[in-house]
Amino acid sequence: MKPPALLPLDDAQARHAAESIGRLRRALQGVLFGQNDLIDLVIVGVLARGHVLLEGLPGLGKTELVKGLARALDLKHKRVQFTPDLLPGDITGNPVLEEVDGRRTFAFQPGPVFANILLADEINRASPKTQSALLEAMQERCVTVMGQTHPLPSPFLVLATQNPIELEGTYPLPEAQLDRFLFKIDVPAASVETLERIVLEREIGIPPDVPCVLDTHALTTLQDEVRRVYMPPPVANFIARLVAATAPTNPLAAGVRYGASPRAALALSAAARARGLCQGRINASYEDVRAVALPVLRHRLVLDYGARLEGLTPDGIVARLLDAVPAHDKPLPTSLKAAKV
Amino acid sequence: MPIDTNLAPSSGAAHWERRARLLAAEINAGWWLSSWLPTALAIGLAGTFALLWARWQALELVPFAWGAIGVALVLAAVAAWFQSRPRFVSVASARVLLEERLGLHARLSSAAAGVGDWPGRRIDLDGRWPVRIRATRPVMLLAMVGAMLAAAMVIPVADAGAFRRRAIEAPADAEIVSKWVDELRREEAIDERSASEVNDRIEAILERPRDAWYEHATLEAAGTLREQTAAELAALARNLAAAERAAADLAAAPSGTASSEKHRDSQALAAAARQLALGGMRPAGDAGTKLGKEAAEALADLSPEQLRELAAALRANRSKLKAALARAANFDLAALGPDSDCEACQPCGTCQECREGKPCKKGACAACNRAGRGGISRGPGEAPMKAGKEEDIGATRRELVTAPTDVERSAAGELLDVVDAEHAVDESAYAGLQAGGTIAPSADGGGPSRVDNLLPREQDAVRRFFK
Q: Which of A65, B23, B102, B172 qualifies as a cystine partner to B94, CB 3.0-4.6 A?
């Protein structure tokens, strides 16, 4: 049965949502200096109910960003430092033997995953078995222990950080788990100006003061409004053609071993909607799709050995696809020249 | 970007839909042009040749050629429309181009779907139209087509009729011989087989490629054919004359004439008949029939009446021959010998012939009295020939000997060859007719020098060789 259609937003609702999101953005900009694009993407990920994987060298402020986000949204957050000897139960929780009224029973002791925001720090330092423990939580938003399913609090999102896999003592995340992250965001190094500002305004051991700008209800409302952002058919067509273009059979995607999945198309759609709402619009646009295509697709493309040897990266391939796939679905004749947008 | 949000949505809708339709039409026209122009170029090229051909053939065809070109262009345009139709863009696609180019964030598509308002009309479109026409290629192609067609009307073209008039004609000698044969056939002066043989020779020459008709070998062959045919016709005329004379002599012989004389006359008639039968040209009609029927021995037994009829038939055949060749022109009639009706010939009344009622030889004109026409008085024995000056040689011989005017290209044999012609007889040594018509065969000077002296078997061999 087809679900009932959502009522599209009107301009006033969109503007109001954009104002709320603007407050959140400004709050996070007070936490992390000089990383506006990163902050915007994290907000888009949160609004799209997606999980975000942050990749960057240690000390770039990833953890601070997550903490700041939790405080700004007044959400319960937990932090797990992934290590090679971490066990799945250390994340999901374990049954503990308890004696109540003379009877011994197993009582479930929730793990750190039972929070609104789970910061999985250096997730790729844990073994694949432990990493996989997050799969059900990320996808189903529940945890099953000893045959008993425990729902996670809402909203729930995982913000994981990982070190570049070339570093020692890291395990690459399995593709199935990577696919469950909405975004994989590269955290760039801070510029000189940013570093100067950090030196002037921060001290070691003293966390930044972050105001609470949105409560849980407001966040949930915003997430619902994202679903009501209109996706025009031409934009959906653009998303479909972009995702289809990542197939290895496409000459433009030469070097790709496995292309993006339909989940990637859904992720693109959700992220584009969220970005549209961030900009105060009632509909998603081609520009939104282009803006979120790189963090959505880069961890979903598996390159072949030859491409790696040639130095091709998923980022380069996605950029090539964005150049090659136009917003309009039909080519233009040679007697006409498309004007540069 | 200034957006007038105060306008009514419907007004904006009409405005943007009109723009989208315009853009779609422009893109679709581009596709149609892309499909039509190569065909138009091909039609232009073909039309150029068609116009040139029409102007070459007949000017009346030029309007039809223009009409065909126009129809072909129209049909190609229709075919191009059907061919490019799958690539046509819809108004929705054009809307996508518009909203992307103008940075409207898919607002047009949303508004078209009923979500949100249409943008205001005051968005500046100057310099922001989604597509630009690359006019260079289409304009150049169309200009090329126009230039080709214009050139086809301007380039000087020769008239095909003139071209046909400049067609290569058959060698003149072959034409002349063909005309002779036609006239002779019409006059029935020669038998059909002789005429067919000559025609076969003409066709053998004309079967060669037209480009080779004026090569040296072809011209030489045609010239040889003309000379050979002329010589054969002259021989036919002479033989007819000789047969006529012999028949007349035999018929005019008095009843008391010695049998030896009658035998000589009959022998002469038989020899003439044989010559007629073996010649390259054979007479047609009564003369040929009658001579062919009678054996040589039987000729002597013909009655005078029959002999006179034979003589008359032979004379009539000779007259036909002469009349036909006179009409055909380009024939030396003098080579046919004197005409018995020659007005210049008057009987002297004193010679033996006049006394005996025979044709006078003394009063004959120079043409009729030429040597070799039965007036040789020397003999029996060899003809006392002498090497005279070239101008003394008969016209036929002079022509034959001097025919190859290009000495540089002539072989020695062409100038010194033995030709089928008359002897260079010392006519000054002629002392009147003494025993005309009674010359022994071993001394028949003045007769055909080469062919006629050959045995029939040898003559056949020579004829086959030249054939």
A: B23
